[in-house]
Amino acid sequence: MPTSQLNGLEYLTAIKNGEIPSSAMSEIIPMRLTLVRENYVEYEVRPDQRHYNLQGGIHGGFCATVLDSATGAAVHTTVDAGVSFSTIDLNVKMLKAMKSGETYTAIGEVIRIGRNVLTSEGRIIDKEGKVYAFGSATLLVTGRK
Q1: 104-113 and 83-94 beta bridge pairing
Q2: How many domains does the chain have?
Q3: Among candidates 123, 85, 138, 106, which has minimal Cα distance to 35?
Q4: Cα-based torsion angle of the residue sequence 32, 45, 59, 63 in order, rounded to the nearest 10 degrees
Q5: Burial class (CB within 10 angstroms; exposed 0-12, middle 13-18, buried 19+) of 125
Q6: CATH code of the domain in which 13 resides
Q7: What is the pTM of this model?
Q8: Which 8-state DSSP code applies to residue 79?
Q9: H helices present in 29-137, as ranges
Q10: For the chain, which ranges sit under pLDDT 50?
Q11: Greatest Cα-to-Cα distance within the chain, rounded to the nearest angstrom
């Protein structure tokens, strides 16, 4: 089946299973889908030296990008084939500095799916469940084919 005929859940499941490639962003920001179900996704995330800020820590933009991806993917699990959407608001709070070479889990969960406005939340945690960053996103449906 062509990818244009897959609904969001089918599309993300195919990415997770390696049947279709992920976006190029996952090469710049190392993240791999590990769990996909309706309204929920998890990514394995591993920052490295490419993501350092001027002070030698992981740049806040790394967290924001990961949370944008996780919250968007959670919403993506709910849409029909041919529906496109875009983030119109992303709110991120960083609580703890991430470390290069460590593995984290990014979680995205749907809060509400409206006809045109979609909302979700996300967090980045370590293997003990400590929260490093959390946020919420508002997305807008931009097209239906």
Answers
A1: unpaired
A2: 1
A3: 106
A4: 80
A5: middle
A6: 3.10.129.10
A7: 0.95
A8: P
A9: 60-76
A10: none
A11: 48
